[in-house]
Amino acid sequence: MQQMATTVTLLLGAASSPGPAAGDGAARDGFQCSRLLPKKKQQRPRWVLCSLKYGCLGVGEPGEAGGRSAASPVYSSLTVSPGGDAAVAVVSSEQKVYDVVVKQAALLKRQLRPSQQQQQAPPAVARELDAPRGGLGEAYARCGEICEEYAKTFYLGTLLMTEERRRAIWAIYVWCRRTDELVDGPNASHITPQALDRWERRLEDLFAGRPYDMLDAALSDTITKFPIDIQPFKDMIDGMRTDLKKARYKNFDELYMYCYYVAGTVGLMSVPVMGIAPDSKATAESVYGAALALGLANQLTNILRDVGEDARRGRIYLPQDELAEAGLSDEDIFKGVVTDKWRKFMKRQIKRARMFFEEAERGVTELRKESRWPVWASLLLYRQILDEIEANDYNNFTKRAYVGKAKKVLALPVAYGRSLLLPYSLRNNQT
Length: 431
Prior knowledge:
Helix content is about 55%, strand content about 5%. By secondary structure, the chain is mainly alpha-helical. The chain has a single domain, classed as Farnesyl Diphosphate Synthase. The strands form two sheets. Strands 1-4-5 form a three-stranded antiparallel beta sheet, with no helix packed on it. It has a two-stranded antiparallel sheet with strand order 2-3. Strand 4 (about 75-80) and strand 5 (about 90) form a beta hairpin. Its main location: plastid. It is found in: Plastid, Chloroplast membrane; Plastid, Chloroplast, Plastoglobule. It catalyses: 2 (2E,6E,10E)-geranylgeranyl diphosphate = 15-cis-phytoene + 2 diphosphate. Belongs to the phytoene/squalene synthase family.
């Protein structure tokens, strides 16, 4: 009889690396988040990227080559037999995503160094397209119209950004929307893996300076102006592939990876455009980590809001092991009856989403001042959806939690006020 493997967590890194201080990121209802901040006020604050178990995934800046500092601990999942046999490493979803974050941060830091900035120029893109009323100006204008139509609040916030940054964000938004429409749009039933393969090849052409249409051209032009890497875009397409073949997630590790693919990637795409405040003391890595956290929080909120809708399509985007721990099954989801077990389960899921929102808040303050408003608006409005789920007595089977127009309007000045706050890294450094 084969021995059952047990999953354990191994702390990698220097033995001298500090652990979580008492009262700093202390365990809360089983969730732990270790934020290793300096004891002395003059020291530079060290940021972390939190894992799904809320253990530390990295502290401080990576080395010059993009690797982690030797003093940075990283949690990694290992599979170990009860008999103590040699461990077989299994890279966790968080570690895979963390590696992408490190790569994106390193790319941004290279771009900020004048001596290296011109060593690798991005591919040139034709400045005019053979379009009906032609040109990149028309392409960007169309991207803005689409953003305004489908994301009115976010669009309003982008109007405070510089023209170049505003148009770039519109181009990224439109590409993401078009990608999402492949599996969630009106023609989703006809989409095949081969269609996604074609979409990925088209993405590669776009990054090589060969846009297929005017909307592609806007993004192709954008990547010549900002240090944007193709990896998050390819990862989002992988998320669409997942939707074609997967309707259950056995644990949060799997769900984490899915949330990164379909939403966390957006944050990684956007940071180079949003920009980091010139006076910020935060590392590029930490800002990317916060952008990732916001994407994860938004997607987890989407999942919790749409439980009933997804169930009617035969999909359950909830950790199967946590459902089982709560005494729930797929059948309970399909029946759609709110019980005490369901309320308890939902409270835990909402708590997790809110912790990601909290992690994201610190990073938003580190963005350029003119870029913060749309991000704050998105964060505040999405977080209110969680409040609405609670107000509906956790009935996300037959009631759709949404934020009313009045609350949206009220959130805008609050978001604007927060966009004026001093970067968190500076506040933390002040005496």
